[in-house]
Amino acid sequence: MNSVVRNVSIEPAVAAAEFRGAMRHLTGGVSVITAGRAKDISGMTVTSVSSLSVEPPSLIVSINRAASSWPLIARHGVFGVNILAADQRDIAERFTGKGGLKGADRFTGAEWTTRASGVPLLVGALAAVDCEVEETIERHSHVIVIGRVLDVIASERTAALAYWHGEYVAIDHEEDAARLAEVSLPSRHVHVRGPR
Ligand SMILES: Cc1cc2nc3c(=O)[nH]c(=O)nc-3n(C[C@H](O)[C@H](O)[C@H](O)COP(=O)(O)O)c2cc1C
């Protein structure tokens, strides 16, 4: 396996706040990463999941090394990716630790199942992906986790939850397509609607 780490040499001309401001424009699909097994579980809301390769099926996610889920992922070597539906905003909020919720308490109020890895997978997610850790790359405050996909639970649902400019937004293809047809606009793929 090849790994090339360059010594970066060009002085950056950007402050952290400026970079953060630029990244607010990047629309992110919202997922919950689940970690651990049985009662020793936690999870976190992320937007940093992306597909790495289809053959073999693999994905990446960047996780803050201070997050409570990271030691669980490192210890068990497995994790779940639960891609949230538009009506699962409350689950996204629970998994940011809102209201001081920690560990297994974040999981109450939703239904969970397991596959080969044993990590909790959200019943009713747009898709739930069971993963084994293939590689981790620690960089700056975060760790990039490469997950080998073990199993996928797909649903028929499509309306997705996204995060954009510091807010949760729903992306509902069916409803927006119908609305676009009503106003006879030329074709557009996706329309973003604010939270209800
Ligand atoms: C919309 C949204 C996206 C987030 N994406 C990430 C992410 O990609 N990686 C990350 O480390 N933290 C991300 N966070 C922050 C984590 O959800 C949060 O730090 C974590 O749940 C707190 O973990 P802990 O209380 O378990 O330590 C995101 C938060 C929000 C609200």
| Main sheet strand line-up | 3-2-6-9-10-5-4
The number of distinct helices, counting runs of at least 4 residues, comes to: 4
Low-confidence runs:
none
The name of the CATH superfamily reads Electron Transport, Fmn-binding Protein, Chain A
Structural class: alpha+beta
SSE ordering: HEEEEEHEHEEEEEEHE
Described by the principal axes of the CA atoms, the overall outline is: globular
Strand percentage: 35-45%
Bound molecules: flavin mononucleotide
- Write the CATH architecture name: Roll
CATH class: Mainly Beta
Give the radius of gyration: 18 Å
Largest sheet: 7 strands, antiparallel
How many β-strands, per DSSP? 13
Distance between the termini: 47 Å
What percent of the residues sit in helical stretches (DSSP H or I)? 10-25%
- CATH topology (fold) name: Pnp Oxidase, Chain A
| Number of spatially distinct domains | 1
Q: Give the averaged pLDDT, no decimals.
A: 92
Structure explained in plain terms:
InterPro entries: Flavin_Rdtase-like_dom, NADH-dep_flavin_reductase, Split_barrel_FMN-bd. The protein is an alpha+beta fold. The chain has a single domain, classed as Roll (Pnp Oxidase, Chain A), CATH 2.30.110. 16% of the residues lie in helices and 38% in strands. The strands form three sheets. It has a seven-stranded antiparallel beta sheet with strand order 3-2-6-9-10-5-4. The chain has a four-stranded antiparallel beta sheet with strand order 1-11-12-13, with no helix packed on it. It has a two-stranded antiparallel ribbon with strand order 7-8. The protein is globular. The protein starts with 15 loop residues before the first helix and ends with a strand. Bound molecules: flavin mononucleotide. The site of flavin mononucleotide (FMN) has 17 residues, from strand 3 and strand 5. Flavin mononucleotide (FMN) binds next to strand 3 and strand 5.
